[in-house]
């Protein structure tokens, strides 16, 4: 819950439902600004304690963001398997307590044999990372439990999510690091090819999509797992957009081992079903995203005492 997605989603939900009606949880100590709102310690591997939290707080929705992501998961497959596959705790507790359960999926849930341009909601997936495999497992288990027992399971496949609070670390996160580099050194080394196109989304659109999806009546949903899309761009395209603000930006390209995995990911998401069933519509395109990120990163770096050009 204390990751970049959880904190922002909780803030949005609290504005709509009241501060005391949304509880954040994690296994680490929250920052002071988070600690002033409802927070509980919760380990997703501890079934008994999770049950206590749900029962004692009258929980009705459960948003499950706990996971080891692609790069970290590949470095520690055993731990990723333990954390990412232990969805059974939240599945069982959601069934037992009639909860509405949201579990995000990912661009990484697709593999080399998947359609890439665009990737539809329903197709061959077969990913080759433990993170992707675990997400497909979650998608299928949630759908199975919905059809067999009526679990109100909901899942969105997120594209690359762009946020000032994202910690760069491979995958789609070059599209965050490039803003920091543009505002500091004016030079960015990218581990992808200049023409590697990937689906991306501003974090505010990601949060809004999640809330709107959770609020949608079940009778409107034709699927339990949906793609959501906003834009697709290449490193060179985002660099060109940044140069409209910072003409001095220089980008060099030095591909690494991450590229092979990313080359199997979709170029674009087909989110036709999300738009039709529950009215999904993004608000950020590339131009607006770049303007917002430059402003946000500049403020963040200034507040942290980091250099800004």
UniProtKB/TrEMBL annotation:
InterPro entries: Epimerase_deHydtase (IPR001509), NAD(P)-bd_dom_sf (IPR036291), NAD(P)_epim/dehydratase (IPR051225)
One matching Pfam family: Epimerase
GO biological process: L-threonine catabolic process
Name of the top EC class for this enzyme: oxidoreductase
Pathway annotation from the record: Amino-acid degradation; L-threonine degradation via oxydo-reductase pathway; glycine from L-threonine: step 1/2
Family annotation (SUPFAM superfamilies): NAD(P)-binding Rossmann-fold domains
Single GO MF annotation: L-threonine 3-dehydrogenase activity
Residue stretches making up the NAD-dependent epimerase/dehydratase domain: 3-229
Protein EC: 1.1.1.103
Catalytic activity: L-threonine + NAD(+) = (2S)-2-amino-3-oxobutanoate + NADH + H(+)
Organism superkingdom: Eukaryota
Role description: Catalyzes the NAD(+)-dependent oxidation of L-threonine to 2-amino-3-ketobutyrate, mediating L-threonine catabolism.
Record family assignment: Belongs to the NAD(P)-dependent epimerase/dehydratase family.
Protein name: L-threonine 3-dehydrogenase, mitochondrial
Species whose genome carries this gene: Cynoglossus semilaevis (Tongue sole)
């Amino acid at each position: 819950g204390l990751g970049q997605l959880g904190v922002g989603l909780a803030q949005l939900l609290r504005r709509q439902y009241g501060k005391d009606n949304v509880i954040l949880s994690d296994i680490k100590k929250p920052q002071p600004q988070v600690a002033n709102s409802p927070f509980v310690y919760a380990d997703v591997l501890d079934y008994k304690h999770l049950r206590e939290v749900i029962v004692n707080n009258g929980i009705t929705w459960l948003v499950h963001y706990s996971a080891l992501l692609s790069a970290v998961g590949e470095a520690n497959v055993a731990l990723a398997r333990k954390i990412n596959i232990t969805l059974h705790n939240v599945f069982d507790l959601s069934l037992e307590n009639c909860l509405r359960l949201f579990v995000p999926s990912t661009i990484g849930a697709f593999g080399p044999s998947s359609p890439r341009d665009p990737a539809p909601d329903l197709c061959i997936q077969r990913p080759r990372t433990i993170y992707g495999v675990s997400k497909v497992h979650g998608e299928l288990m949630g759908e199975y439990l919905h059809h067999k027992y009526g679990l109100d399971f909901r899942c969105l496949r997120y594209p690359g999510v762009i946020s000032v609070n994202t910690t760069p670390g491979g995958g789609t996160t070059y599209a965050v690091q490039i803003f920091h580099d543009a505002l500091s050194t004016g030079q960015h080394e990218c581990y992808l090819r200049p023409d590697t196109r990937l689906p991306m989304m501003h974090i505010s659109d990601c949060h809004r999509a999640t809330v709107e999806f959770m609020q949608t009546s079940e009778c409107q949903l034709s699927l339990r797992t949906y793609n959501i899309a906003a834009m697709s761009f290449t490193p060179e395209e985002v660099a060109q957009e940044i140069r409209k603000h910072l003409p001095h930006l220089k980008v060099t390209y030095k591909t690494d081992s991450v590229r092979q995995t990313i080359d199997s990911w979709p170029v674009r998401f087909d989110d036709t079903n999300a738009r039709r069933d529950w009215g999904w519509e993004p608000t950020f395109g590339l131009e607006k995203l770049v303007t917002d990120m430059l402003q946000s990163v500049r403020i963040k770096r200034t507040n942290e005492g980091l250099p800004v050009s």
